[in-house]
């Protein structure tokens, strides 16, 4: 290719334009390739150099270590031998033993074949390798090798130089082949351009020579085929034009033969042709062509009558219906003309224009107007009422359906018309045609009142509507039946509302089982049936155990779900016709088991129910475990009225809870009075707590050896308004294992801390012991509530608060109790094991429960001086306390002799009536000051310290 044509060649066609980008991409790819090639070769040569240094060092190091120390010549010889192994790249070898002078060989870099620009571009860090070895004399020898980077770079250049030659050959080959392809493409394009120009100039016989490459021959064959087809089309076009001329002549004769006026227009609305009937209409009426819908001077230039009377129809056309116009004829009458038109297309399917005609519709319009007025009146009447109305003909096919009926049946006007009444108005029981006689043979007396018939209408979508409907025949003037009219209304909402009110009046809205009022009816009926059949009826009251704890731990939503699941299990259990489930409120349910043959069958059924209800519940992503307590009253063993039976079942359920829960307890009439009394007393205690009748008294604790007061124990008392001061035995047994017990325990903690604040302000830093019941201690938020109470009293050191717990309180879950104790101790609170030695596995609990103090039960102290085993047990407890590094305190000390004997056994702390009675908080400071003054006035004497004189010997009352 000549260099002068290079620019022209590059800008012609798509392929030549890609020549330069292809060249740039080759160069870019080569640059990237050599960038990574140099990097990989550099890393590989560096790695090989380091491996060679490691090999030579491993060879030299034993030789150098074996030489006598100070033999420089031998070391240099070994280094020289190692340098020969490293080749021309080594820079220096250095051997040094300890701090002695090193032996070092150095070599300047040898010249390399790589160009200077490459050496400056490739950066190789001089490889350095150190070896060390411990010598026999305890010193360390170090061998250091260093290589020159230039020889390494020279090796990289050799690898790159070889790849550059290969790449240059590849690039040249690619560019050469690309140039050949582009030259062949240019020759084919020039041939195609020459043939196309000749064909455009009218030489339809022009053809391309089929030569050259496969692509060139394919292009020539395609061009020759196209040229042949175009030449054939031109010839056939002349034939088509002749045939079209003959067809137009025939169409003209056909249009003139039509009796209706015909107008042919093109796509622009311009008139193309009219027939003779159209011209006669224009001549006889004098109507201008401009009056036609959509026309603008349609017949301009057409033949007109001499004196045409043009009617101004523009205003009429604006409101015309169905392309109708009104034409005034020569005799002065007006005629309604309907203009109908249809589009026609060319042979290629493209829209070519429209063919229109005028039809006299005057008589038809008059009839339609009268019918429309009548129809409008009927439709207004039907639409104004809220009932559905359907009319049929004599054969039962729908003729009309109002909007309300359309909504209720699901059929539109178009869908319903012509359908049989049974297809549109479908009833659930039987077809409506059985009750409706469109022919009138079973019609009632005309004008007679018909009561609405209730039924269920099926909507087209499948929905059901409760309806009431009536049907009457439509009669002609001669009395013959012409059809039927069906009138119906939707009463679904009314019926559903009635059912909903009835359902809510008898069912629990949360669980769906019977409510209290429905249960009363069912119970009355069940008692009647049981009395007649001489069978047993079990009235069972069920209450979920620890349901409040579930609510507190997981929230009310999960509690409601638990109630629903419980109701489902109860409903699945009570499947018999004489068995009923109801919810009385809260977590209480009632179960009626009728037709029971004996008490054993009732017990078996309730045992099975307990097992079912104790199965864990899977609620959301939690597993909830709960049990129920069941109280049962059996009729006629308990021959009482329904309300009394329910009350007795409730009492039996409370007894089941008091006996440990998760069990069945049958009502005992003889215990009824006792249960009532127990409930009354519990209620009275709750009232006493609210009224402030409960108070705390405090019993001092002293050191028997020094006589000093070390603290007090808070003890519960009831300041009864009628019976005076009562001890805890009148309160605690009645509320054991109830929520009131935990509420009372929290009140005691709060009152004790408030009293500690008073004593702290007075300068008294005593420790205060508070008894904590097991039910209170095991509450879920016990630690959080204790922390809140301590934070409310910031001036009180938590270490002054001691919580006394019974070792029997740990029987349920010792690990849980141990964890709670640890959390409380993290707050600073200390613990004491109360009544130690009277429970179970005392040694095991002493080891596992982290209590700081052990309290010896007063039963051991009471028999201390009687020569029995009590002294031995106390001695053992004291020994255990010392072994476990715990304090020990004796309860119930009443005499100086008991105090002296306790000191002999190693117990130095005590409390009891022999020391001080429990006293109101206001008297504690005075007692402490008096005791301190008495100790100060008493001369030093052997222990024990003197007890107060005149202390009555009576048992200690503990909370």
Strand element count: 32
Rg on CA atoms, Å: 58 Å
Distance between the termini: 120 Å
Q: DSSP helix count?
A: 29
Look at the structure and give the mean pLDDT.
81
Q: Which shape, going by the Cα principal axes?
A: flat
Q: Which regions contain 5 or more consecutive residues with pLDDT less than 50?
A: 293-321, 441-449, 949-959
By secondary-structure content and strand pairing, the structural class works out as alpha+beta
How large is the share of residues in beta strands? 15-25%
**Major beta-sheet overview:** 8 strands, mixed, barrel
Strands in their spatial order, largest beta sheet: 23-24-26-27-28-29-30-31
**Helix content bin:** 40-55%
What descriptors fit this protein?
959 residues, alpha+beta, 6-stranded antiparallel β-sheet, 29 helices, 32 strands
Task: Describe it.
Helix 3 (19-66) packs antiparallel against helix 6 (149-200) and helix 6 packs parallel to helix 7. The chain contains 29 helices and 32 strands. The longest helix is centred in the N-terminal third of the chain and has 52 residues, at 149-200. Strand 3 (128-134) and strand 4 form a beta hairpin. The radius of gyration is 58 Å and the shape is flat. Residues 293-321, 441-449 and 949-959 have low confidence and may be disordered. The protein is of the alpha+beta class and 959 residues long.
């Amino acid at each position: 290719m000549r260099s002068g044509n290079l620019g022209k060649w590059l800008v012609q066609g798509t392929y030549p334009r890609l020549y330069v980008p292809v060249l740039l991409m080759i160069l870019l790819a080569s640059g990237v390739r050599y960038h990574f090639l140099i990097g990989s070769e550099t890393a590989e040569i560096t790695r090989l150099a380091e491996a060679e240094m490691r090999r030579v060092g491993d060879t030299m190091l034993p030789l150098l270590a074996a030489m006598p120390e100070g033999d420089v010549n031998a070391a240099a010889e070994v280094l020289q031998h190692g340098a020969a192994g490293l080749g021309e790249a080594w820079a220096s070898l250095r051997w040094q033993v300890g701090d002695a002078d090193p032996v070092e060989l150095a070599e300047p870099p040898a010249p390399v074949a790589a160009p200077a620009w490459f050496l400056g571009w490739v950066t190789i860090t001089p490889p350095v390798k150190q070896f060390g070895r411990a010598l026999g004399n305890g010193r360390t020898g170090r061998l250091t090798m260093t290589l020159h980077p230039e020889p390494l770079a020279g090796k990289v250049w050799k690898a790159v130089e070889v790849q550059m030659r290969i790449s240059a050959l590849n690039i040249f080959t690619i560019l050469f082949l690309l140039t050949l392809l582009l030259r062949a493409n240019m020759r084919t394009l020039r041939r195609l351009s020459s043939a196309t120009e000749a064909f455009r100039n009218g030489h339809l016989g022009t053809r391309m020579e089929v030569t050259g490459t496969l692509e060139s021959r394919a292009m020539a064959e395609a061009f020759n085929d196209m040229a042949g087809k175009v030449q054939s089309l031109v010839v056939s076009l002349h034939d088509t034009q002749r045939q079209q001329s003959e067809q137009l002549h025939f169409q003209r004769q056909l249009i003139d033969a039509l009796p209706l006026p015909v107008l042919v227009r093109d796509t622009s609305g311009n008139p193309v042709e009219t027939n003779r009937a159209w011209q006669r209409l224009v001549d006889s009426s004098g109507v201008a062509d401009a009056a036609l819908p959509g026309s603008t001077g349609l017949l301009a230039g057409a033949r007109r009558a001499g004196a045409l009377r043009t009617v101004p129809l523009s205003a009429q056309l604006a409101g015309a219906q169905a392309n109708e116009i009104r034409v005034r004829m020569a005799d002065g009458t007006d005629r309604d003309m309907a203009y109908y038109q249809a589009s026609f297309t060319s042979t290629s399917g493209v829209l070519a224009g429209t063919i229109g005609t005028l039809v006299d519709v005057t008589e038809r319009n008059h009839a339609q107007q009268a019918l429309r007025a009548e129809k409008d009146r009927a439709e207004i009447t039907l639409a104004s009422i809220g009932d559905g109305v359907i009319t049929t003909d004599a054969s039962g096919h729908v003729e009309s359906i109002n909007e309300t009926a359309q909504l209720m049946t699901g059929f539109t006007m178009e869908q319903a018309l012509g359908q049989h009444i049974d297809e549109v108005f479908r009833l659930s029981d039987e077809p409506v045609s059985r009750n409706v006689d469109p022919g009138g043979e079973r019609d009632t007396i005309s004008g007679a009142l018909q009561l609405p018939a209730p039924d269920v209408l099926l909507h087209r979508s499948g929905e059901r509507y409760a309806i009431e409907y009536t049907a009457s025949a439509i009669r002609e003037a001669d009395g013959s039946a012409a059809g039927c009219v069906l009138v119906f209304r939707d009463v679904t909402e009314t019926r559903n509302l009635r059912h909903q009110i009835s359902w809510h009046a008898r069912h629990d809205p949360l669980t769906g089982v019977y409510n209290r009022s429905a249960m009363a009816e069912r119970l009355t009926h069940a008692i009647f049936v049981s009395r007649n059949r001489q069978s047993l009826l079990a009235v069972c009251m069920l209450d979920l155990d620890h349901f409040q704890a579930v609510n507190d731990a997981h929230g009310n939503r999960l509690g409601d779900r638990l109630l629903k699941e419980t109701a489902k299990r109860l409903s699945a259990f009570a499947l018999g016709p004489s068995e009923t489930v109801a919810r009385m409120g809260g977590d209480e349910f009632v179960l009626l088991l009728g037709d029971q043959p004996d008490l054993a069958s009732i017990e078996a059924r309730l045992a099975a129910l307990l097992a079912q209800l104790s199965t864990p519940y899977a609620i959301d992503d939690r597993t909830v475990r709960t049990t129920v307590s069941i109280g049962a009253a059996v009729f006629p063993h308990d021959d009482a009225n329904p309300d009394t039976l329910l009350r007795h079942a409730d009492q039996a359920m409370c007894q089941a809870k008091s006996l440990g829960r998760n069990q069945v307890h049958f009502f005992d009439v003889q215990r009824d009075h006792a249960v009532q009394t127990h409930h009354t007393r519990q209620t009275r205690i709750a009232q006493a707590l609210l009224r402030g009748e409960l108070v705390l008294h405090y019993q001092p604790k002293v050191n028997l050896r020094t006589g000093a007061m070390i603290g007090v124990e808070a003890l519960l008392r009831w300041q009864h308004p009628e019976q005076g001061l009562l001890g805890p035995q009148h309160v605690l047994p009645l509320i054991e294992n109830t929520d009131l017990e935990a509420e009372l325990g929290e009140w005691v903690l709060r009152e004790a801390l408030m009293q500690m604040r008073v004593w702290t302000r007075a300068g008294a830093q005593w420790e205060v012991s508070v008894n904590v019941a097991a039910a209170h201690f095991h509450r879920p938020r016990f630690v959080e509530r204790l922390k809140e109470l301590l934070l409310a009293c910031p001036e009180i050191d938590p270490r002054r608060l001691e919580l006394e717990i019974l070792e029997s309180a740990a029987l349920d879950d010792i690990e849980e109790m141990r964890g709670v104790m640890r959390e409380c101790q993290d707050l600073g609170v200390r613990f004491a094991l109360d009544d130690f030695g009277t429970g179970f596995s005392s040694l095991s609990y002493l080891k596992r429960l982290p209590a700081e103090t052990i309290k010896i039960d007063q039963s051991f102290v009471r028999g201390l001086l009687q020569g029995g085993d009590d002294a031995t047990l106390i001695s053992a407890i004291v020994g255990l306390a010392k072994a476990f590094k715990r304090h020990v305190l004796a309860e119930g000390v009443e005499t100086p002799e008991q105090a002296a004997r306790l000191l002999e056994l190693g117990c130095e702390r005590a409390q009891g009536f022999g020391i001080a009675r429990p006293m109101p908080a206001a008297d504690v400071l005075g007692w402490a000051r008096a005791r301190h003054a008495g100790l100060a006035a008493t001369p030093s004497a052997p222990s024990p310290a003197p007890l107060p004189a005149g202390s009555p010997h009576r048992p200690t009352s503990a909370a």
